[in-house]
Structures are given as structure tokens and as C-alpha cells.
Amino acid sequence: MANRQALRELQARLADRLQIARTQGVAASWLAVEAGGKNYLFPLSQSGEIFPWVHMQPVPYTQPWFAGVANLRGGLFGVVDLASYVSGQAPLLKNELTRTDSRLVALNSALEVNCALLIDKLAGLRNQEAFSDFSEKAPDAPEFFGNQYVDLQGATWQEINLQLLAQQAHFLTIGA
């Protein structure tokens, strides 16, 4: 029970910091997340609300990376398993107990796509000062990949342009 309360407090603090960052300018540039053992950065201006993991209704005859649909605050959202989508591999099966750190990050409503990305863990907010180095996107990287950053601890973070992701024909075509 204490873990749930601590997770709720962390999520509330992140949501508050996200809202402050949006209203006060560029105090933080990215929402940092982990999915499939990799680190990703979502631009704050393209990120929407963060939800705890909820049970999703599977949809038959869809791509393996399409986790299903979920009711998030009364809205119906398609849920994409980010790690599976990026890797092109089938998603790892996890039960509700192993999903305690998982979150659904909705795309900003300005992108006009009712979609949430299933991630394994939130890693907080990051700004440019959190990184010591960066490299531009590799020529063979997906179109929606941005720069790659190295933080002060030496971990690599891949920026994902959610607007470009939401415009990908493959992303929008969930039918198998």
C-alpha cells in the first residue's frame, strides 16, 4: 500500500512539474521514459497526460504492437506498446503485477490522434543541462527519431518526435 501511495505522489509531482514547465517556458524540454530496456525522450510540447496502467480491451486482427483500447478519463484511446513498435518485435507478455511501474503517455491533443504510448517506467523531466553530449539521427533511423543524447551518467537517450510518429502511415495503420 505504501508503494502505491509513493507512486501516486511521484506521478502527481511529475504532473505538477510538467504543467509548470509548459506554463513557464523551457525549464524542462523532455519527458524521459523507459521502454523495452531503452531510454526515450518525448518533447513536452508533444506529450499529453500521463496515466497509470489500466486494463485494455484487445482488438482482434491488429498489429502486434497495438495493445488495444483503453478508457482514459472518459475518452477512448488506442494504446501502442512503444518498445514493440520501435523494435518491430512482438511485445513481451507481462501480468498486472509486473505492470506496476508501467504508464500510458497520451499524445498531446493538438496532434489530433487519440493515442497513448505504453511505456515501462517514467524517468522524470529532462532539460538540456542534463546531457553532456548529443549526436544527430543516424541516416537509417526511423523518421520520427530525433537526436540521441548522452546524460551525465553516460546513459544514452533517444529523442522521439511524437508529431512525426503520429503522422507515420505505419503507425496509423493498425490492421494486421
From TrEMBL:
Pfam families linked to this entry: CheW
Source organism, top-level taxon: Bacteria
Domain CheW-like: 27-171
Record InterPro entries: CheW-like_dom_sf (IPR036061), CheW-lke_dom (IPR002545)
SUPFAM superfamilies linked to this entry: CheW-like
Protein name, per record: Chemotaxis protein CheW
